[in-house]
Design a protein that fits this description.
With 135 residues, the chain is α/β, with parallel strands linked by helices. It is 34% helix and 28% strand. A five-stranded mixed beta sheet has the order 1-2-3-4-5.
Length: 135
């Protein structure tokens, strides 16, 4: 089972995800993120996804995070992930996605990260990267 709770925590909108993010549930996360972008009038939105209660994330879920990142970045916004499970964080690291999408150990770190806080907070500053959509 998968659920999403939306919270407003200045300066960010927070999506709290619970359960399994997979092929069957990614549409819920896509839709919630799209609503947040619409509410921000598409400009400069900061979205933090709290993954503390995320039990599982397959490649569909990772692809969903990439799509959200692309939509936000296209409008000057930013996506940060907080408390990501080790297996997901490793996938982001191995694929280089952590160079574009901020992956943080805690919600506090994700919220405290400065503007353009791309990359992992596990040490050092990472170069900025972009992910282009190819379809």
């Amino acid at each position: 089972m998968f659920s999403i709770e939306v919270r407003s925590t200045a300066p960010a909108s927070v999506l709290v995800v619970r359960g399994e993010l997979d092929f069957d549930s990614v549409v819920q996360l896509d839709e919630a993120a799209a609503r947040l972008l619409d509410e921000a009038d598409g400009q400069g939105a900061l979205v933090v996804v709290d993954c503390t209660a995320l039990d599982f994330c397959d490649s569909s879920g990772i692809g969903c995070f990439v799509r959200i990142y692309q939509r936000l970045a296209a409008h000057g916004g930013e996506l940060r992930l907080a408390a990501v499970p080790a297996t997901v964080a490793r996938a982001f690291s191995l694929t280089g996605l952590d160079q574009a999408i901020g992956v943080h150990g805690t919600m506090e770190a994700a919220l405290a990260s400065g503007s353009g806080g791309h990359g992992s907070d596990s040490g050092g500053s990472a170069p900025s990267a972009s992910l282009s959509a190819e379809r």
